[in-house]
Design goal:
By secondary structure, the chain is of the alpha+beta class. The chain has 2 domains: about 160 residues, Helix Hairpins, CATH 1.10.287; about 120 residues, endopeptidase domain like (from Nostoc punctiforme) (endopeptidase fold (from Nostoc punctiforme), Alpha-Beta Complex), CATH 3.90.1720. The chain is about 60% helix and about 10% strand. It contains 8 helices and 6 strands. The protein has a 6-stranded antiparallel β-sheet. A hairpin with an 8-residue loop joins β4 and β5. The chain is elongated. About 20% of the residues are buried. Belongs to the peptidase C40 family.
């Protein structure tokens, strides 16, 4: 009898089980039944995305506080000009009143009854005294009114100065928050730089990937001459750096780019992305046309300019220049036609 080699049943069963388990696992993963475990790359991307959102929100808050401060400074300057003009009028009246007092002194400061007794023409004296009295009462009343106005303006100036102080304090707090976020971004960049080249490239591709089916057959031409001019300005800024709180021309944050671009077209936009959201007529995303403002996320924390062909021009985040990206790079909250 020939000898036969026996295969241990347990070994064959184990191999079969392993193969079957591998096939089932692969199929389940392909079908999405078994979610893949989070990787350090996934954690890094999530953390960087979160930090970018925080940084952008801090920047827009800073811009809003800065704009409010500028407005209050203009109000205070106007009030100070008014105070200076009224002070000049008060000084003129004081000089006039001083001349009258000097004339009275030079006349000897007689008691009115004695002056009337020794006057050569009592009727003429009475007429002049009556006129003098009316002038003095009128000027005194006007001086009183001006002093009241001066006090009111001084109070307004003090209140405005108080508001400026509060806003400066708020702006310092926002700036401090910004510095904190910048430190976190530095950490995230160092972490990104520690990733292998393939994972770093995958992260960059993911940040620029589009969501499908966002745009319909909307028009491809700008809706107005000013939109066309603003788009041309935005294109001229391609490649310039993202700079905190900047609105050009050397660098931009997101709302600074759109504000500057429309300023080149003679249109004054508000400073922040939240305010720019309401700077015109809102249209559906499917009808977006070049030059329209595309506002992102529910907090309207980011804004770009639609450039056509499913692309926007925007200032993305620190370290990334003004560039084209897909319009669906993040959730769109509204589209505004200026």
């Amino acid at each position: 009898m020939g000898s036969h080699r026996r295969i241990a049943p347990s070994s064959g069963s184990d191999r079969s089980a392993v193969v079957a388990l591998g096939l089932l696992s692969a199929a389940a993963t392909a079908l999405g039944a078994v979610p893949a475990a989070a990787t350090p790359y996934d954690d890094t991307r999530a953390e960087v995305d979160r930090l970018y959102r925080e940084a952008e929100k801090a920047t827009e808050a800073y811009n809003e506080a800065d704009e409010r401060c500028d407005g209050l400074r203009r109000q205070i300057a106007t009030a100070q000009d008014g105070i200076a003009r009224q002070q000049e009028r008060v000084n003129t009246m004081r000089e006039s009143l001083g001349s009258l007092a000097g004339a009275q002194y030079r006349s000897g400061g007689y008691d009115p009854s004695l002056a009337l007794l020794f006057a050569d023409d009592p009727e003429d004296y009475l007429e002049k005294a009556s006129v003098l009295d009316r002038i003095t009462v009128h000027q005194a009343g006007e001086l009183k009114r001006l002093r009241g106005a001066l006090r009111s303006l001084a109070q307004d100036r003090a209140e405005a100065a108080g508001r400026i102080g509060a806003l400066e304090k708020s702006r310092r707090a926002v700036a401090a928050h910004k510095r904190t976020v910048e430190r976190k971004l530095g950490e995230a960049r160092r972490l990104l730089n520690s990733l292998p080249d393939g994972e770093r490239a995958a992260w960059d591709r993911a940040t620029r990937s589009a969501r499908p089916d966002l745009l319909g057959p909307g028009g491809t031409a700008p809706p107005s001459a000013r939109a066309a001019a603003a788009l041309a300005a935005a294109r001229s800024a391609l490649g310039r750096p993202y700079v905190w709180g900047a609105n050009g021309p050397a660098g931009f944050d997101c709302s600074g780019l759109t504000q500057w671009s429309y300023a080149q077209a003679g249109v004054a936009l508000p400073r922040t992305s939240q305010a720019q959201r309401y700077a015109g007529r809102q249209v559906p995303l499917s009808e977006a046309r070049p030059g329209d403002l595309v506002v992102y996320r529910s907090d309207a924390g980011h804004v770009g300019m639609y450039a056509g062909n499913g692309q926007v021009i925007h200032a993305p985040y620190p370290g990334a220049p003004v560039r084209y990206d897909p319009v669906g790079m993040m959730p769109v909250s509204s589209v505004t036609r200026v």
